[in-house]
Amino acid sequence: MTIVLSTQSSTGPNWRSANLSIPRTKIPLQFRSALAGVGFYVGPGHEATVVEPEQRSAGPNLRASFDDWYYRLHILPLRIDLGNLVTNQVRFVQVWNSYLQQQTLTSVTLESGEGVELVGPGAPPLAFSALQLRRWQLSVTTEGPPVIAATLSYDFVALGRRTVTITGNRMSAWMLPPDWERPVTETLAWATDVQQSVGGGEARFPLRGSPRRSWEFSVLADRRERQVLEHALFDWSARTWALPVWNDVSWLGSNLALGVQTIPVQAATQRDYRPGGLAMLWKDVTTYELVEVSGINADGLQLARPTANAWASGTRVLPCRTARIAETPSLERVTDRIMRSTVRLAAVETCDWPAVAPAAIYRGRPVLEQRPDLDQAQTAEFGRQLVVVDGDIGPVAVDDITGKAWPLQSHAWQTWGRTEQANLRSLLYWLQGRAAALWVPSWAADLALVEPALTTSSGIVVAWAGVARFGRAQPGRRHLRIELFSGQVLYRQLVEATELDPQRELLQLDVSHGIALQPSAVRLISWMVLGRLSSDTVELSHETDGEGVARCRVSFAGIGAEESEP
Known about the structure:
Layout: E1 2-5, E2 15-16, E3 21-23, H1 29-36, E4 40-43, E5 47-50, E6 52-53, H2 65-69, E7 73-76, E8 79-85, E9 89-97, E10 103-111, E11 116-119, E12 126-128, E13 133-140, E14 147-156, E15 160-173, E16 184-189, E17 192-196, E18 202-206, E19 212-222, H3 224-236, E20 240-244, E21 250-251, E22 262-264, E23 278-284, E24 287-297, E25 300-303, E26 316-325, E27 332-333, E28 338-347, E29 361-362, E30 365-366, E31 380-383, E32 386-389, E33 397-400, E34 406-416, H4 417-431, E35 438-441, E36 459-463, H5 467-471, E37 479-484, E38 489-501, E39 504-509, E40 522-533, E41 537-542, E42 549-558
Parallel strand pairs: 1-5, 8-15, 15-20
Antiparallel strand pairs: 1-3, 2-6, 4-5, 7-9, 9-13, 10-12, 10-14, 11-13, 14-15, 16-19, 16-41, 17-18, 19-28, 20-26, 21-26, 22-25, 23-24, 23-26, 24-25, 26-28, 27-28, 29-30, 31-34, 32-33, 34-42, 35-40, 36-39, 37-38, 37-40, 38-39, 40-42, 41-42
């Protein structure tokens, strides 16, 4: 097949003829598909007629698709973004002379190309015949400046300069695992603008779409491990690291061959992998490989490029996050061969996770139905927003601005296994620091049912606890969680409390029970408060990897807006 430039009828605008046949094989493959749909048609004899319109001499030339592709230099690509460079990479730059005459390349210049090697088809001056395509190879290594900002320039006689921009960041892998005698502490830090009215109402505005994330852990290095780590810190302390998320480790169940693009990982969606992120195959501090994840399945990872090494069964597989050292670590040289240190690294990438609200709903808000860890003592406070006026020479005046109690109670989790840890993380991401509010039970035996209650009744008789005298259905003492031994839970609002005698109180609730209540069937009656996290910062303590134990402790603060809730 050839492309023929021909002359059309003179009844319309003038068309100029190049009287030239261009073999189809002279057009680079990557450009043929683009030409196939514009500017020419396929006629009898398997020939394509390309016409270039030209106006009569009295007017301007008409531009055609021919002008977009011919009589110019095409360079693919014009920009190479290497991203986070963790392994040696190879890229190609192609130059196509689409002129119908020979062109001469006078020079090829690589500027700021430390750690970048350029291999071409010949040394300039280099002749490009008509429609000729040439290719240069760029080999980029991990050794060199932390920021890659190079330019590759091609200079042609009478045609000027064409420039390719090369960008990226070099990274090194953090290769030493934590000393699990101490937990790995993970910190999630959101930012919330909380504006409070005089009456206690709140408006909360989250300022970060994702939390800032950091890790703190201890390391213990001996002999070669110490030497490698100290040299790495000496050179890379201010640079970006590919930090393995050690608690999300898994192990290869069988040998992994060289050049594969799939890695089997159990429960991969519950680990900290992400498309476009990094993963590590790790054997020891000097034997590891970083790979780029292109997709995540329930039981494995899809890689952007084949693995560069073969890996034996038992090799660790870990998700990685890009991070920087937040504080310069102090190295404690226990002996001449052993070193101990505590390091803290902060993520430099966005760390997202699916946010999931609790399933139970009361009055339009989720209810926290995860019991606290009773191994950790829970605390409760009832603060007041007091303004103290003290002139130092007279009586002290105290003003309770809102006239409300502001409950503050702790809540601790002890999670076992990867599913529980993933669910807790989803809850924390939904809470988004101080941004989201939910109902928080006290999880204490606040009231004791002493008399049966009928199905149609909306009242309960409880042992005297001062509800009528002190509670008075105020915010924080207005909503109840009634849990039965059968597992059923009732959420009710207190309308009025009345003292029956010194031993009993009658609590009138907003709706009937719907079931008969017996004192022996009630497991727990607790007050609920509408609250939010008291801090934008949450810490997760990983005592083992994700198959074991992780702990978290937070505090919930009442927001004092229960009367305005739906």
